[in-house]
Structure formats: structure tokens, C-alpha cells
Input
Amino acid sequence: MPTRLRRAAPADPRMDWAFRSLESWVARGLKTLGGRKDGQPIKELHLELTHRCNLQCVMCHHWQMPFDDPASVKREMGLPQIRAFCDDARLLDDVEVVVLSGGEPWLRADIVEIASYLRGRFPKASLGILSNFWNTEMVRRRLTELRARGVDRLWLGSSLDGLEATHDSVRGQTGAFRGLMDTVAMLRRDFPGLDFSFSFTLTPRNYKELWDCYRFVSEQGLWFGAQMVVNHQKFEAPETFSWSDEQLREVERQIDLVIADLCARHGAIERIVKGEEREALWLWTRLFYWRYLRKYASKPERFFYDCLAGQRYAMFDPEGNLFFCPVNKHRAIGNVNGINFDALWRSANAEGERGFIDSCRCDCWLNCIANPVLDRVLALGTGAALPGAKL
Ligand SMILES: C[S@@+](CC[C@H](N)C(=O)[O-])C[C@H]1O[C@@H](n2cnc3c(N)ncnc32)[C@H](O)[C@@H]1O
Ligand code: SF4
Ligand code: SF4
Output
């Protein structure tokens, strides 16, 4: 970790005014969205390829599952099963983003075959792989094979859960941080131009290092996001977490530093003053995400009634169980093996789950779920065009 990082930007006194503008765009966007109740086509396909993992993170249930149920590994969907449901699924024809995750997806010996198939089946989509960047050589080998097969429009995401000692302790592995840094160096050297980003899961173990990690990642020109740890109702992780008021005040302070830096770094206030809001939707989405993460940390609640789970995302666990959102993954719709995907998507179970989502009995604030909603709402609120979106 380098020691000479940029210092915190001084808070701009116009920031409250800037956020009032942002809030007004969001309010306007939500009002317009409210009148459009028609369903969204499925835009994202997320496949957890395995629960297996080479790390043992304290907040994560995945890695333990194969120890508790070793036979589950044999039930992982292979390429034939993935192909069987994707080939026939007309409702997946508009998919724009395919995400492979886990567990640790690089552990799947057939990941290159699976990714190559998905590349061909979803020609309009980008292909993302979320992994932990620990085993540099494994990542390099698989990426080399993917490149040899011509798999393009690939992007990678990894987790970063603190500075070296904290990251290693959260990840249950001495050297996890070193491995991650080696992978970053390898990607820059061997795969220049490959897009990758980092995500930070806030827990009481690492919240004091959010700002340092944000600075470190953004100094390198990379995207950095964060989310609060989720204590899953059904899937037990080694640790469950509760927050003291004092810890939450510090979370807010750290997020304030991130927001001030984003504003300063990207000239947010100047853009608003000049009336250039339509040209920087990505910035408003990021600022708003962080602002509401701050709120959510202290008071978890649903901010937008209109949740896109059940419409925009088709998510599968390794065995082929369809679920609508990561928080409610225990409320699976059904298993896709041997069943037509379109029929499963339109089944009574799926409709029942959509009813549950509409009832607002759950809440979350996660990048993967919140950002597409924010993109839509802010585009509507500022009058900007959102390419390809059905608004
Ligand atoms: C399950 S991992 C799979 C991909 C990869 N193994 C990794 O660690 O990035 C995906 C993301 O979920 C996050 N995560 C794990 N357990 C979580 C929890 N209980 N609440 C919120 N996020 C969690 C991880 O930190 C990671 O950013
Ligand atoms: S968060 Fe990722 S790296 Fe950590 S145990 Fe879970 S799947 Fe593995
Ligand atoms: S937890 Fe609730 S609000 Fe969040 S994505 Fe899932 S269904 Fe939507």
C-alpha cells in the first residue's frame, strides 16, 4: 500500500446545495417512473458457478457450504445444463450484462468453456467475472485461455476489505492482500485495457479503512464501491454483525470523505452550476449511491418502492435455483434443470415472489441493485438520454 496518497478534500460549503439539486432530480425521476408500471425486460443474468472458495471470509456463507454438504459440488450446473436452459430462453434474448460469480468462479475447471458459450449466446452483453484476485497464477492462466478463444467485452471485479492486515484477517488468509496486489500488477502488465474494479463490504472489522481503500483504488483510476454487510436470514456466515452508534458515526464520517473527494475530483458542483447535469449521469449515480449508503448504514429501509428485482435480474445459484435478488436468495423461485426458463420466469411461484417484493417487506442498498435504478431515475429526473434503456 503506498504511503503518499492524496489528502482528504476540504468539504465544499456548496455541497448541501448540490445535494438539494440531486434530490430534486431524483424526486422528479421517481415521479415519472411512478407512472410507468410495465415490466422491464431481463437485462442481467447472474450465475454463481460454485460455492467453493480458496478463501474463508468471515461474513460469507459460500465457502462453508461444500464442507457442510460435500455432495453439493456434484450438483453444480455444468455447461450442458447452462446451455440447456439458456438456448431456449427467449426472455433472455435482451440480456446486456452476464455476471459469473460464486464462491470463487475461477475454481471451476470449465469456466473458460462456460464463458465462451455465454459470449456467443449473449452477443449484446458484457461479461463480468467477480472473484477474489488471490491466486494470481490461476487468474492469469484462465484469462490467457479466454483471450485465446476471443472472449471479448470482459470485465473483472474483486473485493478489497481493508488494508493489508485487515483484508487478510477478514479473508481468513495471510497473504490474501499480497496476492490481490500481485494480480493487479499482472493484469496491468499482461492484460492492459482489461477493465477491473473493487468492492468493499463494510463490517465492524474494517469500517475504519474505507476511506484509505477508496483513496488507494481511485488514485489508480479504478472504480471503487462499497456496501454494508448483510446478515443473511438463512445462510449462516462464520460471523454475524451488529453496529454500535459510535461505529456508525465513523462509517458516516468515512463516507463523507469519499463524497467530498468524488465531488472535488470530478468537479460535481461546477457541473451543476454550469447546468451540465445531463452529461454526467454516472457521477450523480455514484454520489447518490454513497449518500444513501450513509443513510442506510444507520437506518436500513427501502428508499425506492419500485425495486427492479423480479424484472431486470435473473440470478442462479450453482445448482440452478433461480432467485431474484441476493438478499432474498433463500426465497428461490424454483430449479431450472429440466424446465423451460421462460415458463419458470412466468410461473405462479415467480409471480408470488414479485408480490412479496412489491409488498416492501425487505430492503437493501447494494451497488448491483441500486445503481441501475438510480441510472433510470436520474436520467428521467435530468431529462438525459439513457442509451438502450426502456424507461
Ligand atoms: C460472494 S463474493 C463472490 C466473488 C468473490 N469470491 C469475491 O470475494 O469477490 C461477492 C461479493 O459479496 C461480498 N459478500 C460476501 N459476504 C457478504 C455479506 N454477508 N454481505 C454483503 N456482501 C457480502 C463479498 O465481499 C464480495 O464483494
Ligand atoms: S466473499 Fe468471495 S472470497 Fe470470500 S469466502 Fe466468499 S466467495 Fe470466497
Ligand atoms: S432486498 Fe428487497 S428491495 Fe432489495 S433488491 Fe431484494 S427485493 Fe429489492
Remarks:
- The longest helix spans residues 245-265.
- Residues 53, 55-57, 60, 62-63, 102-104, 132, 159, 171 surround iron/sulfur cluster (ligand 2) (CB under 6 Å).
- Confidence is low (pLDDT under 50) at residues 387-391.
